[in-house]
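Marked as duplicate of an earlier ticket. Keeping the data here for the record.
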Amino acid sequence: MKSKPRFPISQEEVGIFVERLYMRISEDPVLAPIYNRHIESWPKHIERLTAFWENVIFGNGSDSASPLIKHLRTGEIRPEHFERWLGMFRKAAEDSLSPIAASAWELLAERLSTAYERSAQHNMSAMAFGHREDLENSPDTERPTTPETDGRDPT
């Protein structure tokens, strides 16, 4: 059952926006190589991200677990990557959405980016002091990948 969205937007618009944003990211010279090392299929990844954002916006309870732990486990994400992603997000929102939807969604993305960045900084500090188990033993952390996935997200 679909709940009322946090701001005026349809599920179709969410899907279109997410696809446009991540198609831009898939061509970005800085972010694309990081993503490409960890996902096998852009279309499947976009589906997962669409489900995540639909859950955030509509609160529909879809299967969209937070991608935070997967992002942190890459060990590659730095503060400048968050800034770049957020800049691309803002540009895509302004190009694709109504001003109200763009502004509201940008605020959600900024909050998410800030939370991710703080977690990434904490993780880098823990690793620097030999406390990688903080991340590895987190209840949200997936167990080590299999040789078949080679560390990539198969979805």
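See parent ticket for discussion. The chain has seven helices and no strands.
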